[in-house]
Amino acid sequence: MTPLSRRAFALTATASLLVGCGGGPRAQQATTARPGRTPPPSHASAKPVRALGRSVPVRLRIPAIGVDTPVLRLGLAPDGSVRVPPVTAHDRAGWYRHSPTPGQVGPSVILGHVTVGAYGDGVFRHLARLRRGEKIEARLENGTAAVFTVSAVRTVAKADFPTEDVYGDVDRPELRLITCGGPRTGDGYLDNVIVFAELTATTP
């Protein structure tokens, strides 16, 4: 992704996250602290893993929190914001198709709901429970699996969304998982939960 397109992505994605988190009937309290300013996440592994070629993610598995979901492709809404997954009974995560695919150099971004309206819990309902060192597997269209290790989990106020940390340039394959969290207000949530992870293995 070029610097210009990454900046545009950061602006539109942030705007969509402020409003598109699938509010529902139950409040979800985040299980991590709400820091005001936090340092960049530390790297989970000292050994670099060779980056993969571009291949679209088709499934996401996070064993520690019971996630095993197909992955949708998300584009832009008519207003220029990033689409979020549809609110349905069978909630799925969605990969923003203008970000790197999982395993490519750069921050690959996957979004999911914490709640899905009258349907109840969303696919990322337990995202804030993830801890450093736990594994995330993205299965790709070409049959490869990109395995990431969590390096940090942050819960931040939406007004203080760390755009540069989430979407800025990185020199290795990384993954960002994003949902809503914290106290509810009206039909939305006050915070975002953001998981930072880096590529630590690949499997055929």
UniProtKB/TrEMBL annotation:
Region (Disordered) residue spans: 21-49
InterPro entries tied to this protein: Sortase, Sortase_dom-sf, Sortase_F
Gene3D superfamilies (alphabetical): Sortase
Keywords, alphabetical: Hydrolase
Name of the molecule in the record: Class F sortase
Organism from which the protein derives: Streptomyces cuspidosporus
Lineage: Bacteria, Bacillati, Actinomycetota, Actinomycetes, Kitasatosporales
